[in-house]
Amino acid sequence: MKYYRLTDIDKSLHYQNDNVVYYLRDARSSVTPELIRKSWKNLWPTQEEDFDANDVLPLTVLREKILQEQEKTKNDLQMINDLLTDVFGEDITTKDVEEWVNDRDEEILTETEIIESVETEENEENEEPEQDRIEKVKHEAALTCFNTILKCCSENDFPDHQILLLKKMKEGATEKHLKALKQKTIGEFFKP
Predict the structure, then answer these.
(1) pTM score
(2) Residues 67-79: pLDDT tens digits?
(3) Which domain of life is it from (predicted)?
């Protein structure tokens, strides 16, 4: 039996709800589907492995809806294809129609705009990139920033999912910081 000191209990009482949710999410993500399946098999050994009576009907209904949507899309594309072939008198493939339908957001450029964009691209390619040394951010500075951002987000009622993402990023930065503090072996200096 393990006895806890009073300070440990006091510390554990100060955890915030968002920390508890964060730890629960991490614990849940570490549980694999195979582990759940094996646990249920031990609890309910008479249940067949691949059969789930609740999933049979909804999956067939979902499959039928998907097939109907695909058929409707094919019919619409064929109708557009036939109409364009009648108007222009050329053979237009369904692939061309799909490209036209999916490329609605592209802007139409004039000849001068096309020429200017090509010239600027050529000028950018001809310029040699400056090889300035990029300063790396120190791990301590990153951790300080994460703590400040987390405090600000908590005080300003940011959504929980954003705070959890920041905590996960902070955890990654902490791991990198601890790895950087680890003493290197002589073999690490001679790696190719």
Answers:
(1) 0.33
(2) 888 888 878 777 8
(3) Eukaryota
